[in-house]
Design brief:
Largest sheet of chain B: 6 strands, mixed
CATH superfamily of one domain in chain B: P-loop containing nucleotide triphosphate hydrolases
Radius of gyration of chain A: 20 Å
Oligomer: heterodimer
Largest interface: A-B, 42 and 51 residues
Shape of chain A: globular
Helix content of chain A: over 70%
Shape of chain B: globular
Order of helices and strands of chain B: EHEEHEEHHHEHEHEEHEEEEEEEEEEEHH
Number of strands of chain A: 1
Distance between the termini of chain B: 58 Å
Chain lengths: 278, 437
Amino acid sequence: MAHAMVEMIIEGGHRPALVQGLRELWAFREVIWAFAERDTRLKYKQAILGVVWALIQPLAFLAIFFVVFGRVARVSGGSVSYPAFALAALVPWFFVQTAVSFGAQSLLIDVALVRKVYFPREAPILGAVLSAGLDFGIGFGLLLILGPVLGTRVSWTALLAVPLWVILAVLASGIALTLGALNVYYRDFRYAMPLLLQLWMFASPVAYPLSAVPERWKAVYILANPLTGILDSFRRTVAEGQPPDLRFLAISAGVSCVIACGGYWVFKRMEPGFAETI
Amino acid sequence: MTWAVKFEDVSKRYRRGGASYASMRDDLAMMGRRAIALLRRTAVESTEPFALDHISFEVGEGEAFAIIGPNGAGKTTALKLLTRISYPTGGRVRVRGRVGALIEVGSGIHPELTGRENIWLYGRIMGMSRQDIAARFDEIVDFSELSHVLDKSVKMYSSGMQLRLGFAIASHLDPDIFVVDEALAVGDAGFQAKCVDRMTHLVTEGRTLLFVSHNLSAVEAICRRGLFLLDGRVAAIGDMRNVLRRYLDWVDEKRQRLKAPGTELRGRGLVVERATIHDSSGDERYVFSTGESIEVQFHVRAQCDIPNPWFSLGINDGRPGELVLCSMLEQAERFNIRAGAHVVRCHLGPLPLGPRTYELWMSVRESRGAADLVDWSRVGAFRIRLADETEGVGGVTTPWLYGAVRVKHRWSLEPRKDILPTPSLVPAMKGSSEDMS
């Protein structure tokens, strides 16, 4: 054998060692990619429908929002038209929704593998989040093409979508890890998830602007829902062609990181029992 | 010899008797109980039994090691701890080198993807690098015998083909320690032979093998050392043959206990209270070696005088047909049984029986054989123990698994005398075969 013999010790009464866990995760990065690639291939197996599906979701919601919020409730899109305003938040929102719902289910989908093959159990979840990134890419393409038609102001700030997406992915991973672990232990959870996601969407400034929130609640709102700052930044950079509000963004990014670390810790704590419970 | 795998006082206890998931309500209730217990400073003890109960053993580097035992003894649990699929409750498992498992392969194969995609994706998920797969891709395809359907989606494959694909991927991982759990029950006979080849090849290459199987012949042929697990404890460990002997002995003993009826046999005018078996010195025994003489005693109670009853005794190994039948009809001397208690003895000469459990059957007919006084029934069981002198690759399991009757034998080989290997014959034979074609 060419590689060095590394002694591995599997200790009873396992407690998570996060640094060691992250080091191992890095060693298994190829496995995460494999899961991401598999999920993507499966999703786009019927190629045309697959791509169209990534477009249908935000467009359908855009139509509903346009009628309900734009026409009936007369929500203002600020400096841009309401459809442009809504689409700029719908695209990142659907990334979060897809990543969280697929990520949280992925251990249950891969039961056979979890029971028989060892890999860090977060690998399929992170793979699902990454594979949702492709949907985001397609949606973002739509935003770039359709945006100017709807009235966005395209500027160099649209490039900031990439780091913003990274923050979104960190947040989505943290939540998917927590829900994924709970899903293994409590199957009832699966039924609650679509509802929770729906509630989360309406609790985030997707259909309405951040400015619609009363000033004294704003701080609590931003702290409690890390999506707030990210979606707001998205809207500013991609739709309005302005730099993001760094104060809001920093808070949201910080909260996202805390959620990601917490989710990872919860996940690692519950991980040893997965194969027996699932 | 350095070790590759070391179990140090390892125990495993499954939560709520194995694979089960709780509802949140149950868990909240449990949390409540724990909180109360914490307040009262008492502990909530788990009552689940140990799947593995403080076991320790070592597997040397490059060694072929088997774990045998009945179902539920903890064999698969031990492998799952080693492959990190589940975690020990106590103690520790130490492993030197990469572990590759072949635990019921084929399960992870995705039906919507093609064979080619599955090899690429599952090879990586199971731990191969892209370079590894690229280098071994053709080998994997050859091994699976699926080159003709490689670009069809796996849902079109038969279940045997899917298993073959899974095994081909898993068996081309390149681990230092190879773990195999009943993976040989895959595909047709030809493919199974290939799998055994592959395993033997890996062993001769110096890989460490941990093998869990109920196929004892394969275990005996492949492994030099082993472990017999029983109820999560080490029942025997060491040289494979000795471990196999201990295991087979245990299996037979259990069968014997199951097969010996404890009740008396009531017939017409005659009750057989019990049947006992004795060795040549008269001691009651139920375990013998091949070639020992035995005596069977029927302890009977006659309710009236029975003239010339016709006793029969049969020995079989659980399959239809008697291996031995001893009947009073063969004997000139007959007996009259008066009302009262008697012992009817039958002495049997050296028994040429192989190691396994045998059943003892009997019947009693009236003097002309027209009617049964006692119907043909099982009255006991005894066991022939495996003799230690057997040698050869299948020396322990072959006599146990196959023919029941043991006859001393010796194999040899010599050249045929009717055909002389003269050079002049060779071209003539070649010519004739050409004529035929």
